[in-house]
Structures are given as C-alpha cells and as structure tokens.
Design a protein that fits this description.
- The protein contains 8 helices and 7 strands.
- α1 packs antiparallel against α2.
- The protein has helices at about 10-15, 20-25, 40-55, 70-75, 90-100, 140-150, 170-190, 200-210; strands at about 55-60, 75-85, 105-110, 125-130, 150-160, 215-220, 230-235.
- By secondary structure, it is α/β, with parallel strands linked by helices.
- It has 2 domains: about 1-35, no CATH class; about 40-165 and about 200-245, Rossmann fold (3-Layer(aba) Sandwich).
- It binds S-adenosylmethionine (SAM).
- S-adenosylmethionine (SAM) binds near residues 86 and 130.
C-alpha cells in the first residue's frame, strides 16, 4: 500500500482488527516500509539535538518498535541502551537491526508495558517516538509517571509532538474521522486496537509534565517539510527530587 515491500491494505485491516500488541506482531516484518515508523529526517534532526545534550551513560527508548530511536541513541550512550516495547514481533526486528547498529554500548530489549516500566532511576535520557497514539488520554499520567520513575534525577524525557492543528483544518478533520472509526471499532470488537490521533499534543503534554515536576522546553523549526509542524520536547527532571514527586 505504501511501498512494494510494505503491508497491503487488507493486511492493515486484519492488523487493525487485532489487539494493539497482536496487530504490531503481524505488522513487524513490514513495519519499516510504512509511514508509521519515525521518518529519517525526523530521526536525523533528533539525533543532532541529542548529540548536543549527550553523551549519556544510559538511554531508554520507550515503545521502541523496530529500533528507529535506539539506532540514534546507541552511539550517544557510553554504557547501555534499552528498548522497551509490548510487541514481541517488533522486538525481534529491533534485535536484528541493533546487531548491526553503530555504537558500542550494550543493547537490551525488554518486552513490557510503557505504563508500568520496571526501571528505577536508571536512565539519563528516555525517548518516546510515534507511540502516544497508543496511550489512552486517561493513561497519559501513568505514562509520564512511568518515565519519571525510570529517569535518574536530572534525566531528560525527549519526544516529538505538535501544537493542536486548527480545529477545521483538513488534518484535524481527517484525524477526528479516523478517531471516530477507531472508537466504533473498539466499541464493537474486543480486544481493542488503541490508536488515536491528536493525543499528547504540546499543551496537554506540557501540563502533565509540569505537574510531575519536569521542566519543559519545546524546540521548533528543526524538521523539514512535511514534518515542520512538529517540535522536539525536552522535559527535564530536577537534579534533587522533591519528596512529593517520589513514588
Ligand atoms: C508506531 S510504532 C513506533 C515505533 C518506533 N518508536 C518508531 O518511532 O518507529 C508504536 C510502537 O508502540 C508499541 N506500543 C504500543 N502500546 C504500547 C505499550 N502500552 N507499551 C509498550 N509499547 C507499546 C507498539 O508495539 C509499536 O511498536
């Protein structure tokens, strides 16, 4: 549908009728030929931002998929990089990619839920790319908490988001139509495939991160068209934790 080696329309339909986890297991071998993978120009710009902030001892890619972010992170980490994802199929492809990825730091791939990551103050930086659509708005606080627990004091949560598009713009209308179809699908078919657009946009992300004690900075103008609506968010935990923020 998107590329000769990518999934067909019907394969996407079958995946969309599966659970989120199973859908990604099915899509995994062809995922890199879809526009759902974080595109190269975005990864390159992000790599430059991370290079200015690094080097890091340890980095985490939350919802790492087939390893797009891990590949950027590894050369910037001196000790280890960890990729976490809920889909075994995606992790299998990530393992193959990371076997030939640049950098010398140790690579660990963990199957797990981003909302309940098993890490405590272990990482200097955590990325999350292209995955906020799989987190329901009611779970976003849990995601922020899970990332905050995984970061060392002073650690950074780095991700890409955007401002909300104008409410009647074609982009907003298309996204709302897609979300409506997914809501109907998820009302009628179990288990759900959680995938919604326009989630964790900058105003909401900033609010949740500030409430959790992060300092938040948004960097604009880094991506070429057609990605120029996006910004990189650098959210930093304080060096010394506020006892109220500890969990
Ligand atoms: C669109 S892909 C993005 C992959 C990669 N970060 C990238 O930018 O190319 C979304 C990924 O999120 C994973 N995912 C969805 N919900 C998750 C959850 N609750 N916990 C961990 N991973 C999750 C999926 O399995 C999938 O690999």
């Amino acid at each position: 549908m998107f590329h000769p080696q990518g999934p067909t329309f019907w394969e996407l339909v079958v995946q969309g009728l599966s659970s989120t986890e199973r859908g990604y297991d099915l899509l995994a071998p062809k995922f890199d030929y879809t526009p759902f993978r974080t595109p190269a120009p975005v990864l390159q710009a992000l790599g430059r931002v991370l290079q200015d902030l690094g080097p890091f001892q340890a980095g985490l890619d939350v919802c790492c998929g087939t390893g797009a972010g891990l590949e950027v992170l590894r050369p910037l980490c001196t000790e280890r990089v960890v990729g976490l994802d809920i889909s075994r199929g995606m992790l299998t492809v990530a393992r193959q990619r990371m076997a030939r990825a640049p950098g010398a730091s140790e690579v660990t791939l963990v199957r797990g839920d981003a909302l309940e990551m098993p890490f405590r103050e272990e990482f200097d930086v955590a990325l999350c790319l292209g995955a906020f659509g799989h987190i329901l708005p009611r779970d976003e606080v849990r995601l922020v908490d899970s990332v905050a627990r995984a970061l060392k004091p002073g650690g950074r949560f780095v991700f890409v988001t955007a401002d909300p598009p104008p409410i009647w713009s074609p982009l907003a209308l298309l996204a709302r139509l897609f979300n409506l179809v997914m809501r109907i699908r998820n009302l009628m078919i179990r288990p759900p495939f959680v995938m919604y657009y326009l989630t964790f946009l900058l105003p909401r992300a900033r609010k949740l991160l500030l409430e959790r004690g992060f300092e938040v900075e948004a960097l604009w103008g880094l991506f070429p068209r057609p990605f120029s609506r996006g910004c990189v968010v650098l959210a930093r935990l304080p060096e010394a934790r506020n006892p109220a923020g500890n969990t």
